[in-house]
Amino acid sequence: xxxIVSFTAAVSAAARRSPAAQFWMLLDEINTCPHVAHLSDxxxxxxxxxxxxxxxxxxxxxxNPYRLQPKDRQPAGLAVSxxxxxxxxxxxxxxxxxxxxxxxxxxxxxxLTADEEKQFIGxxxxxxxxxxxxxxxxxxxxxxxxQHLAECSVSLRDIERSLKLFDWxxxxxxxxxxxxxxxxxxxxxxxxxxxxxxxxxxxxxxRSRLGAEPLRxxxxxxxxxxxxxxxxxxxxxxxxxATEQSAYLANMELSPGTAKNGALLENVFVLLVCI
Length: 275
Prior knowledge:
Layout: H1 2-17, E1 23-27, H2 36-45, E2 47-48, E3 51-52, E4 57-61, H3 100-103, H4 114-125, H5 131-148, H6 156-170, H7 183-190, H8 193-205, H9 213-224, H10 234-250, H11 262-274
Parallel strand pairs: 1-4
Antiparallel strand pairs: 2-3
Helix pairs in contact: 4-5, 4-6, 5-9, 6-8, 8-10, 10-11
């Protein structure tokens, strides 16, 4: 609340010093804040703690939709067995209900069309290597998760995460497999490192969110079908991911008898990369 008050006070003071100018104030993700009632007072009544806002200050606010998770959604990753009461766990976004006074001010702008999203993705990818493959693969990934999880399960934030992961992997790829050399792993090392980095970024940002193995295979096939000069086969996609996961575990000291199964490989890999 102190941050809301200080920010609003600073903007209001600037607006009062220049009454001939128009000032705009954007309050983002207001329904994720526990002080949404105070934010409602700003938006609906143009006041905060009894202090009126200047007339040349325009207030805008953005919020996430209040939507329930699909009941048949299968979770991916480690399952939590503890019975923790979380009233927001069943929501797509962890948001609070908007006060009734704000509902008259809500406007649904919808979502980007496929062409619009592709333009945004192309701009965000910029001049990174294998841009054509990256744009097509990211667009395919967005569409695949919307189809199989939920319409609002992905956004441009997932593109941003993928780009951060690509940039990170570009400088942290495994360069040798001396610990367990095989012809297939050696072939992976000969693939362009930037292409491997894209595959790993897609695997963490999208594939890891798919709980059922058949669905993951279908996702790999969708990426394989991306029509551009540089593409990745289903076998190479799986091998790139499996090889990188195995390399991480090979550099760890494990207790005797530890089963290096797929669940352990994936969870260790995702945890270490995200940390």
